[in-house]
Structures are given as C-alpha cells and as structure tokens.
TrEMBL record:
Pfam families: Aldedh (PF00171). The keyword Oxidoreductase applies. The active site is at 267. Keywords: Oxidoreductase. InterPro entries: Ald_DH/histidinol_DH (IPR016161), Ald_DH_C (IPR016163), Ald_DH_CS_CYS (IPR016160), Ald_DH_CS_GLU (IPR029510), Ald_DH_N (IPR016162), Aldehyde_DH_dom (IPR015590). Gene3D superfamilies: Aldehyde Dehydrogenase, Chain A, domain 1, Aldehyde Dehydrogenase, Chain A, domain 2. Residues 33-484 form the Aldehyde dehydrogenase domain. Belongs to the aldehyde dehydrogenase family. One of its GO terms (molecular function) is aldehyde dehydrogenase [NAD(P)+] activity. CDD domains: ALDH_GABALDH-PuuC. This is Gamma-glutamyl-gamma-aminobutyraldehyde dehydrogenase. PROSITE patterns: ALDEHYDE_DEHYDR_CYS, ALDEHYDE_DEHYDR_GLU.
Length: 498
C-alpha cells in the first residue's frame, strides 16, 4: 500500500463529505426528534459534522423496517450465493473507497492514518469477504433416524440483530459483526459509538450501492441511554451483539431478561498479561511484541498487553529493549504517515487515562500527556493489587510486575476478573503448553502477541466475554438458530397414530 504524504492526507481531509443522517430503510434521514450532536476530531478539537441524535423512536422505526425486510425474505431467504455476490460487491466498493474510509476513520477517532490504511480498512474488507465466501459453502445436517423418518438440523438466520459498537476500531468491529450477521441472512440495526459514527454511516450507504436491499442494514447514531438501551430492551430484536466495557456489557443481560430474552453476545474488557520467562529466546523480538501489544492503537484495544509479568533475571535487559523500541514510536498528528501513536479518542477518555498516570508511583519512562496525546508509558508496580494492575486503562500504559518463578507468573496472570487474551514467552515447550492450558483467557499466544485472524474465534473468559465469539465459523453460527425438521416417511397411511 502506497501511503500519501502528511500534506496530501491533510488536503484530502478538507474535501471529504461527512454523512450526517441516520441510515434507515436504505437512506439517510434526520433523527425523528430533529436533534443532532457534534462529532469532533480529537487530534485538533475541531468539529467534523453534525450528526442525527437518534432515540427510541428511531430504534422503533429501524426495527420495523428491519423486521419487514427479514420477514418478506428479500435478504434472509434469497440464495446464499446471491447474498455472497452482494457482499463481495460491497468489498469491492470498500476497496475503491478505502482511502476515503481511512481518512474519515482517522479524523473521527484519532487513530493513525498508518493503522487505518494498513490494518483497519483492509481487515474490515477481508472480514466481510471471508464471511461472504463462507455463505455458500456450509451445509445443514441430516441426523441419524430410522428408515421411516428423515431428520434434518437446519440453520436459519436468527432474525433482527442489534449491534452495539465501541469507538476503538469503529469500522473493523462493525465488520466483525455485520460480516457474519449479513452473510447468515439477518437484518441489522447498528449503534455506533457516539465518538465514531462516520464510517458506519458511510458503509451502510456503500452496502446499499452494492445492492443490499433496503431495511437490511440500518445505522442509528446516538447515545447509549438513548439508542443502546432501547435496542437492548426492544421486544422485536432477536439478538444483540455488543463490544465495549464490561460495565455496559452486563447491562445488556439485564435488558434481555427484562424484555424478550433475546440472545446476547458480549465482547468486553481485558487486563491482558504478557508473561516473559527467564528462558525466553531473542529478547529483542520479545520487546517488539510487548511494545506492539501495549502501544498499538494507543493501547485503546481490548486485547492490549497491559501487564508485563517478567522474570526477575531478564527484567532489566527486557525493559531496556522495550524502552528503545517504544521511543521509536512517534507521537503526533494522526494524518502524518510516520506517526505510530495518535490522539486518544476524546477529551473525556484522555482525562481518564491521565488519571491513571497520576496514580502511577514509579514511571520508568514516558508519561508525557499533552493536548489529547499520551506517549508510550511504562510503570513499575510492586504487585498485582494496584489499580493500574486491576482496572482496564485503555491507553498507552504498560504496568510491569516482577516474578521469580513460572508458577508465580501464571498465578499473577490469572489473578484478574478479566480473561480476554494472554501471551507467554518461553523457549521451554512443556512450559509453553502447560501455561497455555492453565491461562484463563479466550486467546493465548505463545512467543508472539496477537488476536489470531478471521478464521479463529475471538472472545473472552470470565468478565471479558459472554455468549459467543466474534470471527470464524463460530461467529457465523451465532447469528443463526437451529431448527429440527422431522419428516415421517412411513408407507402406512392407514395405520392409527400411536
Ligand atoms: N472491549 C472493548 O473493546 C472496549 C472497551 N472499552 C472500555 O470502556 C471504557 C469506557 O468507554 P465507553 O465508550 O464508555 O464504553 P461503553 O461500553 O460504555 O460503550 C460501548 C457502546 O455501548 C453504548 N452504551 C453506553 N452506555 C450504554 C447503556 N447504558 N446501554 C446501552 N448501550 C450503552 C455506547 O454508546 C457504545 O456504543 C473505556 O475506557 C474502556 O476501558 C471501550 C470501548 C471498547
Ligand atoms: N481488538 C479488537 C477488539 C476490541 O478491541 O474491541
């Protein structure tokens, strides 16, 4: 991918048309209330767009349109290959508009243009394509039954799905959810985070251009209480898939229980450990993985490495290498393609992360915070009980905890309410496998940092996840429900039924 220069990206930013309406039933429209909110570029504080501030009435309208679309089968009952064709056309349109989407995403979220161009947009396209390709390659099942019967297990799309999204990977998290949901034949009502609504709105427009029937893909910008809660409580939504904080995620269990017992899938916070044992090979490479895990996307990542649990014998050497690599991560204008650490998503979130820096008693390096930007920071902790070791910070702050043995490292790693990801660096194969088995996390990486890829499920143990997984065939399956079809084949029409 050839990147532009900072000036060229700046010039492009001036020419973008930002969407402003909610996207309902195939077109943009104002919120029923007529209210709007201002979307702000967190890197500069300048307003980008006035966006429709939806509420429960818009949710009702969007759900009605989504239900009509689902029930008349314009998407849910067409040939899977036809669904695939539309989604592949959407991927082509995304590719054609990739640069526009990348700049829009960077302006709206503070993410670096480098990441938007090289990760967020291409991975979003790849995700939708992966699920589109799956659509006409999976089969239903025939169950064992007597010769007088045929028993089938059919997968049907679950129905109207609410998708409630975070701000840290706005388009990519949307793709993780609409990819499998649309491929399965569902209609979706999407609520982007208020901080980052622009690319979701633009994507709905592109999907319409690709031929997605109206009513199938609706996007409702607005607040959590105004849009998220009505989605969670709606009596005609069959399932909600949510990504965000554990506190808000748990609310959806209550909404479901107090409404129609809709299915709920939650992908929530993390406090992810990286364990580095004294036998880890190539400490320089380990340091690069730790820096990437901790500081990529400004640490605004549920899978971010936020606790470095390091054996005392390699601690000094490893920290020196981490510092050297982290210092090479430029902090600054997200539209400069050399920048690796952009702005935090909002003033409120910046203030929250600064509050954690204030609590840090021993900052080893970094800790510079100015105007919405925070430099990669490493903090030494005496143990795992400090708030920096227990609470999700969601910023470029790595806490270091020293240990003296493998068993102690595993115990510290598991001593958390979260269980999303963990990484383990060791050259000892037995330790690697034993460690991977006992670490209580949905994804464990050995001698690397990562989340797997499109084909592997992503989600958490403990308070990091509930009800399912993003990515892979598992994600597709969770947007479907099973129907048993049992057919009597006996040639005995005259016999009494017993
Ligand atoms: N796991 C992850 O990927 C993410 C975790 N977070 C964590 O959450 C913290 C707070 O960030 P927020 O943006 O406030 O996260 P949040 O979990 O409150 O927001 C996620 C989504 O839920 C919606 N929402 C908020 N309150 C709601 C409610 N009462 N009912 C229904 N929907 C609601 C939001 O508008 C947004 O679309 C961050 O500092 C970070 O620690 C934030 C974003 C993503
Ligand atoms: N890293 C993708 C999942 C998330 O941060 O929410």
């Amino acid at each position: 991918m050839d990147l532009l220069t900072q000036d060229e990206y700046g010039a492009m930013a001036q020419t973008l048309d930002f969407p402003s309406g909610a996207f309902i039933d195939g077109g943009y429209r104002p919120a029923i209330s007529g209210e709007t909110f201002t979307s702000v570029n967190p890197a500069t504080g300048t307003p980008l767009a006035e966006i429709a501030a939806c509420d429960g009435r818009d949710v009702d309208l969007a759900v009605t349109k989504a239900r009509e679309a689902f029930d008349d089968g314009r998407w849910s009952r067409i040939h899977p290959g036809a669904r695939k064709d539309v989604l592949i056309r959407l991927c082509k349109l995304m590719t054609r508009n990739a640069r526009e989407l990348a700049v829009m995403e960077s302006l709206d979220s503070g993410k670096t243009i480098f990441d938007c161009e090289t990760v967020d947009i291409p991975e979003a396209i790849n995700c939708i394509k992966w699920h589109a390709e799956l659509t006409d390659k999976i089969y239903d099942q025939v169950a064992p039954a007597s010769d007088d019967h045929i028993a089938m297990v059919l997968r049907e799309p679950i129905g109207v799905v609410g998708l409630v999204l975070p701000w840290n990977f706005p388009l990519l998290m949307l793709a993780w959810k609409i990819g499998p949901a649309l491929a399965a034949g569902c209609s979706v009502v999407v609520k982007p985070a208020m901080e980052t609504s622009l690319t979701a709105l633009r994507l709905a427009e592109l999907a319409s251009e690709a031929g997605l029937p109206r009513g199938v893909f609706n996007v409702l910008p607005g607040g959590g209480a105004e849009v998220g809660e009505p989605i969670g409580r709606h009596m005609d939504i069959d399932m909600v898939s949510f990504t965000g904080s554990t506190t808000t995620g748990k609310r959806f269990l209550g909404y479901s229980g107090e409404s129609n017992a809709k299915e709920v899938v939650l992908e929530m916070g993390g406090k992810n450990p990286a364990i580095v044992m004294e036998d880890a090979e190539n400490l320089d490479r380990v340091a690069q993985h730790v820096v990437n895990g901790a500081f990529w996307n400004m640490g605004e990542n549920c899978s971010a490495t936020s606790r470095l649990i390091v054996h005392r014998d390699v601690k000094a050497d490893l920290l020196a290498r981490i510092e050297a690599h982290a210092r090479a991560w430029n902090v600054g204008d997200p539209l400069d393609p050399e920048t690796r650490v952009g702005a935090l998503v909002s003033k409120a979130h910046y203030d929250k992360v600064c509050g954690y820096l204030d609590k840090a008693e021993n900052i080893l390096f970094g800790g510079t915070a100015e105007g919405g930007f925070i430099s990669p920071t490493v903090v030494e902790l005496a143990g795992n009980d400090h708030p920096l070791a227990r609470e999700e910070i969601f910023g470029p702050v790595l806490s270091v905890i020293e240990v003296a043995s493998f068993d102690e490292a595993i115990a510290v790693a598991n001593d958390t309410d979260y269980g999303l990801c963990a990484s383990l660096f060791t050259a000892n194969a037995k330790r690697a496998i034993r460690g991977a088995r006992v670490l209580r996390a949905g994804t464990v990486t050995v001698n690397s940092f990562g989340e797997g890829d499109m084909s592997t499920p992503f989600g958490g143990y403990k308070q990091s996840g509930f009800g399912g997984r993003d990515n892979g065939v598992h994600a597709h399956d969770q947007y479907t429900q099973l129907k048993t079809l049992w057919i009597d084949l006996a040639d005995d029409a005259d016999e009494a039924v017993s």
